[in-house]
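Appendix B. Chain record.
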Amino acid sequence: MSWAFLRDLLSGVNKYSTGIGRIWVAVVFLFRLLVYIVAAENIWKYEHDEFECNIKQPGCENVCFDHFFPVSHIRLWALQLIMVSTPSLLVVFHVAYRKNREKHLSQKLYRSPGEIDGGLLWTYLTSLVLKTAIEIVFLVLFYKLYNGFEVPRLVKCDIRPCPNTVDCFISKPTEKMIFLYFLLGTSCLCIALNLSEFSYLIFK
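Structure tokens predicted for this chain:
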């Protein structure tokens, strides 16, 4: 997957953001996107191959892996990054609409193309609300899917076709836990930045 579109989208919205919004873009790009691409993706790259159970019953290992990891962490993070960045398209479309309208009427209708005012303000606030809601939904989703924000060293599985309760081992659980907490922490930081920017724009 190419992340160039996401990078260009974030940098395009950046010039219409407040100072807090620019910090949000920096956090998403540096501490989430780059960490995801450079490090986190490689840690979970062979998670299925490195998931081992103490029994060789055909199909047992597969169903146990599917039970404890219904959706891959790394794919869920990729979806989260895409979904969180998508509301920024509202701002991009609104700005494009403004420029097209000015071009069509051949006159300047807005004081400054980089200023948040009028309809653009409401579009921007809507994008902040959507980004915050999406972040919260994904945090809840992570918590529900994986029974809390933990990566256990050992999981016990008794799902058919396993003949009895078997022990299954997750590879590099400590390393995965560190990156899990880091990415969850940056997600919470982004929520705080969105709420701060929303409050700033409202009271300003």
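Further analysis of this model is presented in Appendix C.
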